[in-house]
Amino acid sequence: MLIAASAFAQSAPATSAWSQTHNLALSTDYVFRGISQNGDANGLSFSGGTDIAHNSGFSVGFWASNQNVNEVGNDSIEADLYAAYAFKLGAVDLSLGGISYFYPGASDYNTSEVSLSGAFAGLSLKASYALTDYFNFDNSDGTTYVDVSYSYTFESLKNLAIGLHYGWTLGAGDQFDYEDYKVGLSYPLLGYTASLAYTDANADGINYSNKVLDKGFVVFSMSKTF
C-alpha cells in the first residue's frame, strides 16, 4: 500500500507556475477616464484580451477594442500592451506596471505610461504617469492620472457588487486638468457578468469632438473571463 501510494503521488501532474486568462465584453460604450471613446458614433463597443501571469507576481497582457474618439481616417481600433509586477507589503497589495496604448492608422495618439498601485480591503489607489505625449496633446508628457476606487461584494445578495471611482487628470502641456466619477453595479448572470454604470466628467467638451461631457451617461455591459 505504501509503494502504491508513493507511485500515485509521483504520477500526479505538477502545478504550473504560469496561468492564462482571457476576457471578452460587449458594451453600449467604451469609457476611458470619464471620456466616451465611441465619440458621436454611439455604436456598441466590442473588446477582448488575454493575460499571462507567473506565480512570482510578473504578468503581461494584451487588450483591444473598437473606438472612434480620434475620428482620424481609418483609425477605429485601440490595442494595448502591458506588463506588471505584483507583490505584497504587509496586508497591502502593490503593483508596478507599464502600458502602451496603440492606435493603428493614427500613431500620433500612441501613449505610454508607467504606474504604481496599491489595494487594501476593497480600496485601491493608482497613479499613472505619461512617458510620452498624452494622446496627441502637445508637450503633455508628464501628465498624471490618479484613480481612487472602492468595491464591495454583497455575498448575501448572490454576489451583487458595487463599485465607486474617482479619477483626477493632472495635465501637462496642452492637456488640461479634469475629474471624472463613476458609480456601478455588477452581477453574475448565466456565466457572464452584467454591469451597469453611471459616468460623469467635468472635462471641456470643446477639446473632445464627441459626446457632451458636462452631462453624465449610463453604460451597460456583458463580460466574461475564462
Count the strands? Answer: 14
What is the share of helical residues?
A: under 10%
Computed structural class: mainly beta
Assembly form of the protein: single chain
Report the radius of gyration as a whole number of Å. Answer: 20 Å
Count of individual helical segments: 1
Mean pLDDT: 89
CATH superfamily: Inverse autotransporter, beta-domain
Q: Sheet with the most strands?
A: 12 strands, antiparallel, barrel
Shape: globular
CATH topology: Porin
> How much strand content do the residues show?
over 45%
Q: Distance between the terminal alpha carbons, to the nearest Å?
A: 39 Å
Stretches where pLDDT is under 50 for at least 5 consecutive residues are 1-8
List keywords for this structure.
226 residues; mainly beta; Porin; two-stranded antiparallel ribbon; 1 helix; 14 strands; 4% helix; globular; disordered N terminus
Structure description:
- The chain contains 1 helix and 14 strands; from the N terminus they run αββββββββββββββ.
- With 226 residues, it is mainly β.
- The chain has one domain: Inverse autotransporter, beta-domain (Porin, Beta Barrel), CATH 2.40.160.160.
- The strands form 2 sheets. It has a 12-stranded antiparallel beta barrel. A two-stranded antiparallel ribbon has the order 2-3.
- It is globular and about 50 Å long.
- Mean pLDDT is 89; it is low at 1-8.
Task: Kindly summarize this structure in a few lines.
This protein has one helix at 2-11; strands at residues 18-27, 31-32, 35-36, 45-54, 58-66, 77-89, 92-102, 111-120, 123-130, 144-154, 160-170, 178-189, 192-201, 217-225. The chain is mainly beta and 226 residues long.
